[in-house]
């Protein structure tokens, strides 16, 4: 999960690496499915190594769908689809920060999911760790995020 | 799409054949994902020939998920998830009849999707053809339903 | 509940009378909230006699909201909001027929709600009574629909 | 908006005062509708002075509904109903903090709504002001929150 419109260059690079690493592990990548920002970068990373990519779209058609998505789920729910994103994920990695991403992190915590924050956004790290110390883990690189996913899945 | 709880033996046999035929065509099977009725039968048919199966679940966990589903989308939307089922399908095949199935047919029509009715339920055929003559096609066998899908996809 | 775009003159007259009668009974009117068709007519009927009107809108803003709605709920769910319409109603009256209305009737039945059909659309009457004989009642006038609501609420 | 389960005594007192003040202004109070925490306290405050209260429930029935709610909207959307809460509000006041409340603040910001934070939770104030400086206002009392609402509505 991560910003569509205001992703930084570092967010996009991290997302691409995450997508690639997720696919190389044999895991399925689930994103918000759109052709921009962190969603697009992660999906492209996964497809470069033939991963399987799922996109949970906010609209009712394939408009705005990333070409790197294999399976498009059209929800027509707007931002309420963010709840489906996190419910359908075994682990949530939030790459970068913004209002939509913050809603996904909060919904993931509410649904008792583990969330890994990969960003250098200090106030988000402090806030989310404060409201859910057991569910939120900080990662400082895509590699470290993937290692954390492995530890979570092993438990 | 089709009944979970009150599917007839014929519905289940048709669903199994449909799932298998869909997978053999190389198409992806999308169902409501639960481990009962038409959803389960279609998913098993698809998996027997190594098809890819997606289940759009009404709940917030994998509780009640069919073992024949590869990709589970947890919506926590209850029956509102029926709208996602039809929006995410290229063509909707309704196999059997019941209130949930009727809601999916109606939502499919509302979303301008093509719907194939595979049942021997005369009043449903009459009703849905009357409200959407251009969107609703009657099929009298799984094979004929698959042929109709091919014609729709070719247009 | 009833068609937005293809309501007949009789549907609109019935809807207006229903809205007025609902308000005169001291009941709250809940509709899809838009400024067209059966929703608009029923809401206007209720407001003429100072009833309270609730509109469950498909969009994320007040765009297209009927001026006769007191309380607008913006769902941004598209047609999935139809499930909220019926869940939030004590009794559902379907005035006229169309794909959206059919989805509401089917969802109401699925959610074990009582539905009153007020139309002269024979195939819909036959179909819905066949799939849910205990939940579906036919009314041949707004007055008779209101009487049926009273009987249902008394049980 | 505010926590159901982990509201502090101060949150509950603030919520009650907010509900009362909102009703005295002649505004409609919209909450998550449940019979606990900030939702319940605010609704009770509003009802004490005969305000109108709306509850947007996560479930499909009136189970868990606050007795202080006049109009119950049953969504059956689980936490996805949080998006409806904020979309249907002219101004969002977040009273207290928790994962569900954080999701509502984030969704409100995403939907370009104004949000007033009434809490003494420093990291949430810092975080949300950082991601949306123009949409987030800090209030240090119910009275100040109400004044801010008036300013927002006047613009």
Summarize the structure.
Chain A is an alpha/beta fold. The first copy, chain A, has helices spanning 9-24, 37-48, 81-87, 99-110, 122-131, 142-154; strands at residues 29-31, 53-57, 71-74, 92-95, 115-118, 136-139.
Secondary-structure map with pairings?
The structure is a homotetramer of 155-residue chains.
Chain A: H1 9-24, E1 29-31, H2 37-48, E2 53-57, E3 71-74, H3 81-87, E4 92-95, H4 99-110, E5 115-118, H5 122-131, E6 136-139, H6 142-154
Parallel strand pairs in A: 1-2, 2-3, 4-5, 5-6
Helix pairs in contact in A: 1-2, 1-6, 3-4
Question: Can you tell me about this structure?
Answer:
Four copies of one chain form a homotetramer. By secondary structure, chain A is of the alpha/beta class. In chain A, 45% of the residues lie in helices and 15% in strands. Chain A has a single domain, classed as Rossmann fold (3-Layer(aba) Sandwich), CATH 3.40.50. Chain A has a three-stranded parallel beta sheet. A three-stranded parallel beta sheet of chain A has the order 4-5-6, with helices on both faces. In chain A, helix 5 (122-131) links the parallel strand 5 (115-118) and strand 6 (136-139). The longest helix of chain A has 16 residues, at 9-24. Chain A starts with 8 loop residues before the first helix and ends with a helix. Chains in contact: A-B, A-C, A-D, B-C, B-D, C-D. Chain A binds chain D through residues 77-80, 82-84, 97-100, 102-103, 105-107, 109-111, 121, 123-124, 126-128, 130-132, and chain D through 77-80, 82-84, 97-100, 102-103, 105-107, 109-111, 121, 123-124, 126-128, 130-132.
